[in-house]
Every structure is written in structure tokens, then in C-alpha cells.
UniProtKB/TrEMBL annotation:
The organism of origin for this protein: Ruminococcus turbiniformis
Signal peptide bounds: none
Superkingdom of the source species: Bacteria
Domain EAL: 24-279
Name this polypeptide is given: GGDEF domain-containing protein
Compartments, record wording: Cell membrane
């Protein structure tokens, strides 16, 4: 409920205000135990195919739900996990959850919905990342093309040849690869030109900025239109993030976007709720 989430945010707000370090200590001292206790939950947010109007995919988003029922959002721990390295463990745990969920749907005789999962850049520096991914596919006996790996474009700023090599190996296993939050940071045409990605997710900042003054909004629209057109010419699928209104949807459909994702359709919901609603 709104009241609960307010309470939760105040709890963190307090800690952050007075005891930033204490929050970090709390998170760091509990993270391994939390992983062990299965306190990290997979939530799923539908990805709507704009042509069909149906849920044709979903993104897995982590929520940390300790025993006391608080819900802790990724913004409050992912950056820390990125800096202390724990993201590698958490991300592999999430990939395994995604595999397990797909296997469950198949076993129940349901048509599995393709899932996307966020991959920290740390994974790309792990020597056994690709082998571990392969092992998970074999363990759960699922086709990799039901899984899309979302990476951030910041990765492309580091070693683009090395990154491309890893992407090729993941694609050889059958995974789809997506560029997340495109347009939020140092996006460049070089990213589009050199990375062999299957999907591009337009950062929600694009749609947010449409409410700005007329002139700015016009420029934003032009840029979005051109990105979608260019992307389609490169045979890359497009997803607009942060669709919050009917107007947003109408606009992205007019651009020729393939998918929309956002609160207009659904917030991220628990995997159980998602299965009941969409499978
Ligand atoms: P992201 O991958 O770009 O995921 C989309 C975020 O936007 C999610 O926030 C989602 O709840 C939110 N969102 C979706 N639709 C709307 C909308 O219409 N309006 C607004 N205002 N927001 C919307 P969330 O779940 O808090 O996750 C934030 C970020 O944390 C993610 O951004 C992703 O970068 C990271 N993250 C989440 N789960 C994982 C994970 O398992 N591993 C890693 N490495 N990062 C994760
Ligand atoms: Mg994402
Ligand atoms: Mg995103
Ligand atoms: Mg994001």
C-alpha cells in the first residue's frame, strides 16, 4: 500500500540522512545471508507488443524483501553491489530465477513468455561468465532465445572489441542481447554501429521530456523518430521505456516502436502474480 511504501522509504530516508555509512554496513553485512535466505525476489514487468497489444515479454527486476516485509528497491542496493562486486552473485541468481521460471511454465504446459534480465558490467569481466550461462541453460534445458540480456551502454565505452567478442559468444549460445537505457548517458552512433545487439531500449527520459516546453518537446520527438527509424534499418528491435499514458503509447506507436513498457500497462509485479495474469 501507499502507506507502507511511504513507511519504507522513510525508513531508508532516515538511515540515509543520518547514517549513510550504517546503511552500507547493514546492506553489506546482510547481503550474503539475504541471498541464501532467498530474500531477493524476481518481479516481472510486462513488455507489450504494440502491434498485438499483448504481453509478449517481461523484464525481471529484483526486489529485496527481508523477513519483516519491507520492500527495498534496486536503486538502494545495486550501486553498492556494483562497487563491492556482489552484483555478480545477484545477477547470476536472477538469471537462474529466469531460467527456472521458464522451465516451470514449460513443465506446466504453458506457452513461455520470453524474459529479459539486467546484467551488470562486472559480469563481463568474469572469466567464467559465458560458461556459467551455458551451464544454466543446460541445467534447466531451455532455449536461450527465450532470454534477453540487458546491458548498459556504458560498457561500450570500455573495451568495445572485447565486449563484442563476449556478445558474439552469448549470441552463439542463443541469447538475445539488448542495450538498456539508450539515450541516458554517453550514447553514440558508434554503439549502434559496432555492437551486435538485437534490441534497443529507449530510456524513459525521452518520454518524460515530452511534457517540456513545446519547442523542446518537438526536438525530442524528432530525435526519437530518427533513432527508431535508424534502429529499424539496422534490424534492431525497439522498446520504449516509461510508457505512462495513452498519449505516450500513441506516440511510440506512431514512431513504429515494436514494444512498450511502463506503468501504463503494469508496474513490476511478483512472478506469481505475473504467471496468474499473463500465462
Ligand atoms: P531498468 O533496467 O532500466 O529497469 C526499468 C526501471 O524503470 C525499473 O525500476 C522499473 O520499475 C521502472 N519503470 C518501469 N516503467 C516505468 C514507468 O512507466 N515510469 C517510471 N517512472 N518508472 C518505470 P527498478 O525496478 O527500480 O530498477 C531500477 C534499475 O535497477 C533497473 O533499471 C536496472 O538498471 C537495475 N536493476 C534492477 N534489477 C536488477 C538486477 O537484477 N540486476 C542488475 N544488475 N540491475 C538491476
Ligand atoms: Mg533493464
Ligand atoms: Mg532501462
Ligand atoms: Mg534504468
Amino acid at each position: 500500500t501507499a502507506r507502507q511504501s511511504l513507511k519504507n522509504s522513510i525508513w531508508f530516508y532516515d538511515l540515509q540522512l543520518h547514517e549513510d555509512e550504517k546503511l552500507e554496513n547493514y546492506v553489506e553485512s546482510r547481503m550474503y545471508q539475504a541471498l541464501e535466505n532467498r530474500e531477493f525476489k524476481m518481479y516481472l514487468q510486462p513488455k507489450i507488443g504494440l502491434a498485438s497489444g499483448k504481453t509478449e515479454g517481461a523484464e525481471a527486476l529484483v526486489r529485496w524483501i527481508p523477513d519483516d516485509g519491507r520492500v527495498i528497491y534496486p536503486g538502494q542496493f545495486i550501486p553498492l553491489f556494483e562497487s563491492n562486486g556482489f552484483c555478480v552473485n545477484l545477477d547470476m541468481y536472477m538469471v537462474e530465477n529466469v531460467c527456472r521460471q521458464i522451465r516451470e511454465w514449460i513443465d506446466e504446459g504453458l506457452e513461455p513468455i520470453p524474459l529479459s534480465v539486467n546484467q551488470s558490467k562486472l559480469l563481463f569481466y568474469e572469466t567464467d561468465y559465458i560458461d556459467n550461462m551455458k551451464a544454466l541453460l543446460e541445467k534447466y534445458k531451455i532455449p536461450a532465445d527465450l532470454i534477453t540480456l540487458e546491458i548498459l551502454e556504458g560498457l561500450a565505452l570500455e573495451n568495445i572489441d572485447e565486449l563484442n567478442e563476449k556478445i558474439s559468444r552469448l549470441k552463439a549460445l542463443g541469447f538475445r542481447v539488448s542495450m538498456d537505457d539508450f539515450g541516458s548517458g554517453y550514447s553514440s552512433f558508434n554503439t549502434l554501429a559496432s555492437l551486435k545487439i538485437d534490441e534497443l531500449k529507449l530510456d524513459r527520459a525521452f518520454l518524460m521530456r515530452l511534457t517540456e516546453s513545446d519547442e523542446n518537446s518537438k526536438r525530442q520527438k524528432t530525435i526519437m523518430k530518427e533513432i527508431v527509424e535508424l534502429t529499424k534499418k539496422l534490424k534492431i528491435t525497439t522498446v520504449a521505456e516509461g510508457v505512462e499514458t495513452k498519449e505516450n503509447e500513441e506516440f511510440i506507436r506512431s514512431l513504429g516502436c515494436d514494444f512498450g513498457q511502463g506503468y501504463y500497462y503494469s508496474r513490476p509485479i511478483s512472478a506469481e502474480e505475473f504467471s496468474e495474469k499473463y500465462l
